[in-house]
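Task: complex structure prediction.
Instruction: return structure tokens for all chains below.
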Amino acid sequence: MSWFNIKGITNPLTALGQVAKKPHTIRFPYEEKPAAERYRGLHYNDIDYCIGCGNCAEICMNKAIDMVPVEGIEPKKGDSGLRPRIDNGRCCWCGLCVDVCPTGSLSLTREYIFVSPNPEDFLWMPGISNPDGKDKRSWRSNDLNFSINTYEREKMPMLDPKERVKSFAEVVLGYEEDQARREAQRCLSCGLCTEACPEHMHIPEYINAIAWGADDDSLRIIYDNNPLPETCGKVCTRRCEEVCALAKRGEPVAIRWLKRYATERALNADEIKEIVNPPIAPKNGKTVGVIGAGPAGLTVGYYLALRGFDVEIYERNSRAGGMTMYGIPKYRLPLESLDKQIEYMKKVGVKFHFNTEVGKDISFDEIYQKYDAVFIGVGLQDAWKLGIEGEDADGVWSAIHFLRRVNEGERIDVGNRVVVVGGGNTAIDASRVSRRLGAEVIMLYRRRKQDMPADWEEIEDAEAEGVQIWTQGIPVKVITDEQGKVKALRYVKAEMVPDPRGGRPRPVPIEGSETDIECTTVIAAIGQSADYSFLPEKYHDKVKMNRGRIIVNEWGQTDDPKIFAGGDAVNRVADAISAIADGYRAVKGIVRLLLGEEALKQK
Amino acid sequence: MRKQKTTTIYLGPQHPGITGNMMVKLEVDGDTIVKAETHIGYLHRGFEKLMERRNWLQSFTIVCRICVPEPDPNEENYARGVEEIEGREVPEKARWIRMLVLELARIQAYLLWYGGQSASVGLYTIGQWSIGDRNYVLDLFEELTGGRVYHMYIWPGGVRRDLPKGFKDRVYKVMDYIEKRLDDYDRLLFDNAIFQKRAQGVGYIPPEKAIEWGVVGPPLRATGTKSDVRIDEPYEFYDQVEFVVPDFYKTSDVWARALVRRFEIRQAINIVRQVLDKMPEKGPVWNKIPNPHKWRIPRGDAYVKTESARGEFGYYVVSDGSQFPRRVHVRGPAYVHGITLLEKILVGQNISDVSMIMNSLGTCPPEMER
Amino acid sequence: MADLQKENLLLEVLKNHFNDKIFDLKVQRHQRVHLRTTTEQIEAVLLYLKEKLGYKHLSHISCVDWIEENRFELVYILWHPEDKINVLVKVDVDRLNPVAPNIDYIWPQANTYEREMREMFGIQFPGLVGRKELILEDWDDLPPMRRDFDTLQYVMENFEFRSGREDAQNVRETIAKRTGEEIPEFAKKYSR
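Output:
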């Protein structure tokens, strides 16, 4: 280098050339530069859309998010009533809370300046403290591909529809281990489902146990308050899945199938006993009689037996299970599965008297005298009638009697064309059974397909098996041939008229639209009712009824303190899990009655 | 002969000439340093410990904070470490986007370095320019990742969001602009007699010792060694882009290290353009991970490294099979540069050159003290 | 994938030289080799790798606390600038008596790493020169990077939380309370 570097002096002076240029840092007059479209600024929460699952609080690695109750937001099924509150002093704006939000209600905004001299002001209820954030939402999880939650359910292996109709083999094959683990991993463990479950099963816990590979623990947790988990794992109406946080934008966690997976790990009653290994209290000398071995009665039997009671269950039929045995077709709930669970109950100490009809083989009085408490779980045994001409013809069935006969092993000749009237799960069952008996099946429903009370998956399965669903048709007459056998079903088409009172639209017959469907069998599946003829007159003022249902208090108790009731005969839902919930409630009621409040607290 | 007396001077922890919160304790004889000792511990962080209590996904939000000026190599390392242990595939487009982010990060880190290096010799104009221009890159980051400094964008399995519409065009535009500006910087910094006089022959690292002493990145390349993780152990698609690793500056002083960086920022701009050209238009950018609370990584370990603007950035990630990392140990280039190396090469230097030497080594206390 | 010829060759050379003094040799992947040795042998192995085989660059020394197995695992990560191979040399150190040889005469920067491990894990390196304190200051508690040092407990004991957040609720507990669900004790570890 030379001693004097002329370029080294002059070149830097070129900077002077910038003097006249517009500066690129500050604009004058001031121009606002909005933050980018995905800027991660202050939070905003769509309060009405949020369900308070707390997943944001869970993922926050700074523990900046609290879940707190908010005025004006009532807790309900599927909504904890809590909303996130953010300590902006701790937040690092990573946006993970947004990416894990199952509903997409939480987002970050373009707003990023907030100044206050008061430290308390930095505790924010997003969406409530900044309602104007709604228009400034920037970092969102609209695209489910970028949400951390997995919204697609693990596909359940099933029999091919063509194979299904050939036999009564179980249609659903059950998850393999790795599938179950993956499906269980999807669960956010928020617990919203437990509120929707009538029995309040410990769903997040047993799913987590499956996710961690602890199948035994999972089964133990399930048996904590459900004595028929395998039944539920196969046929539960799963209202839990309706409120699943993931269901807001995707498919809910397959809670039912996971329960099924856990229960199927135990292959027989001995294995259940070995795994669950419940502590059985020493005999306390109290006795309880149970009428009806349906889910409600079995629940009472199982949990009271564990608590040291002597329980005897009286069942009219030759097998336990009630409607789950005689009402649910075997391709959904195989006999072996039910037997396994009943066998386990026997091992725990529940006693059964089969083929013993109360009111005929043994009088109600006798039971009432013999036991310290009585539980009535008789369910709904009679079917509603269609109330149309020709209903008594040969070839007209009520669905529950039809299913019952089939489940007892009888092979009923339904001919080649069956019309099933109704749109509920029983109607679907009757239809799918008829398909398996070799007939062409038409389901006739008064309203539209979206109004059908049956399980959506069941409807799809039925259609896959070839059941035709005819909607907006009201049966008016069964047409018979000379021998009094069904020849056809006459029905009228209906149009849907909006209910002026705001209810669901009603079907109104269209005049002159009568049509005949030729068929060999008609199955009516429009509802069931109870038969209380076993109950002598003198109990009627204590065991009160309302529209065919027994009225009980919060402990499942009737006005006669000794008589408890539950199951379909009590609740209006008529499914297994509600019956189990009723039974469990009665268990607490009976323990309270016979052992006192104190005993209730010990478990 | 009179016994020499030395004076002790504490440079930092709060000192404008120091690249962060650290302190160099200097023993000086007149203006000449006879002994230097680095003291760290002023940041109070302990991220590596924090990660033991956070799950694999939550930890991802911590790692970027290990280095303020250039967080992306950390994210990249962490993500790649996790993916390697788990065997998780990364979609092709995501890997191109990662390269884009890494190179943009390199550009903005070098722009920041321009500021620091020139300010350390008293030339402030260029720093104001380059840091102003750096904001254009940060604008791009803001648009792509939602954050300007901490991007939290590269995560296990891919990247967090796809490119916004029209993003590529804006990147080209900013690249063209910065490339043009680099000539201005040259005239102001590299042509400048002051910088030439100050930088040449200062902060010498003996080239034959450099590798042994753990020197990496631009300081190592300034000794004439061709060493760059991007070609030595190519990650992502660095084997599919063309760039030159400078091994022709051999003087191994502050001046050479500055020239290396001057050369490399142009290479980085070049790589960005190649990446944009080669990146597929469509395709997934994330291989979804399971529920983070239940996401377990099989037992195993991986040492992954990335070439950051300051050299080899390594992560030693260990999993014990649970949903929490067993250990994430960070090897920042500054950990070696700023302590043992700095202590060695400061001896005999003039006290006024300390901050210049530190800048040229890329000393960064946040990554010494994870 | 690239062939692993170089990596396998390296293993061969090492095996021939050290016989049974090194074990668990494996090629983890392209450009990365693992091996394990003992504290007695570590200096010899590292010196051999550096002086004879050209693994001149010490990338990193890491330490993992395997508390369940009662050992610290030191990991020396070396790099060959020409062959371009990472070698991870692992050494187990007894957790109750954590002593490992000082290697800062081989690589000067090892000094910092060892000081860090001394401070964070309490591993002693006889002959290690350097200030006792690297990052911590006046620390007389358990070395903080050990697994049995509970960060949360430390925070609880030494720091205050801000007020105004006590009303936070746990979603799961709130729902369970509302519905009267009794979660059994043994199941609670599976709650979130």
